[in-house]
Amino acid sequence: MLKNKVAVITGASSGIGASLALLLAQQGVTVVIAARRKNKLDFLEARIKKEGGKVVGVKCDVSVREDAEELIHYAVKEQGRIDILVNNAGRGHLGSVEDTSDQVIQSMFEVNVFSLWYTTRAALKYMKEQQNGHIINVASMAGKVGYPYNSAYVAAKHACVGFTHALRQELMETGIHATVVCPAGVLTEWAMVTEGGSMMPLFSESGPVIKRIAEEKKIPLPAIEGVKTPGEIAQQMVDCILHPTPELYTHKGSKEFALLAAEDRAKSEQQQLPIVLGERQVYERVTGKR
Ligand SMILES: NC(=O)c1ccc[n+]([C@@H]2O[C@H](COP(=O)([O-])OP(=O)(O)OC[C@H]3O[C@@H](n4cnc5c(N)ncnc54)[C@H](OP(=O)(O)O)[C@@H]3O)[C@@H](O)[C@H]2O)c1
Fold it and tell me: What is the mean pLDDT of residues 38-57?
């Protein structure tokens, strides 16, 4: 079903985007892979070609409107069509609300939100002519639930979820699908390249404190599946392309937790309390506040 389709994947130089490009190319999809690090794209391009796949690498900063629009027009000019657009490029930041500068807020919304309009507006022109297509936006559980020390990213991913829902309304009965993907933890570069410093210490060093607080306060932690590989997420996205759904929750228990947060915010926050307190300790230490 996927053979000879054309997919544009942003943020394909590493992580989920790179894994998805590999899987789709193996299914006969021509993949147009985009990111800022051209050397990483070249590496992936060579690997896909070696496996007999069809691939084009495009250096592109999706937060620059002209770049993002040109990516879509170039893909269609070269490949004749665009069947799948995966808005996957994204980045987080480390910082409490009061430590978040205007520049970081701007940057988070440029890459995680504004870029959605840039690529999607351009792609819709072609998809509407074709009367089919699938737009997949990679949000996060951070688009459904609050998390600390990353507020501009959390707000941006909530915007990504809202954008997708609005887009779906406009696409009803047009033959074009839209899906928002909400992963929990994935083993990629993401937590290491966050603006304002790596978030990695918050996740890797808070474990024992979280466990102790949860035991002391007798609070059951959210029952969300642990960290998954980008390959596992990519496979779920391929399945979603074959059988489109409005939303894709990639981790067991994550949909249930998002539903709990929507239904009873205070109850879901109570389950997050040990995590918040554990991460607070690490945040205050790494930022010299403690
Ligand atoms: N890892 C997780 O735990 C997790 C959980 C939920 C959601 N997500 C989301 O999943 C998506 C993929 O992230 P990942 O986990 O695979 O992390 P990753 O390995 O860091 O991948 C992020 C990708 O986005 C690209 N990117 C960043 N800024 C860009 C820009 N301005 N223009 C173009 N490309 C840009 C990066 O490439 P260049 O640096 O080469 O440009 C990279 O290819 C992101 O939207 C992320 O927010 C991740």
Answer: 98
Could you give all domains of the chain from N- to C-terminal order, each with its CATH number? 6-190+224-262 (3.40.50.720)
Can you give the length of the chain in residues?
290
Distance CA 141, CA 133 (A): 25
Q: Look-up: residue for tokens 């500068």?
A: 101
The per-residue pLDDT of the chain, averaged, comes to 97
Is the pLDDT assigned to residue 96 strictly greater than 90? Answer: yes
Read off the pLDDT band of 216 (50, 70, 90).
Answer: very high
160 Cβ below 6 A of ligand 1: no
**C-beta neighbour count of 150 within 10 angstroms:** 27
Residue 183 in contact with ligand 1 by CB distance below 6 A: yes
Q: Is 153 a catalytic residue?
A: yes
Asked whether the beta carbons of 139 and 161 are under 8 A apart, the reply is yes
Question: Could you give the CA distance from residue 260 to residue 180 in angstroms, rounded to a whole number?
Answer: 19
Judged against a pLDDT cut of 90, whether residue 290 lies above it is answered with no
Name, in order, each residue with C-beta under 8 angstroms of 153's C-beta and a sequence gap of 6 or more.
Answer: 91, 92, 93, 108, 112, 140, 142, 194
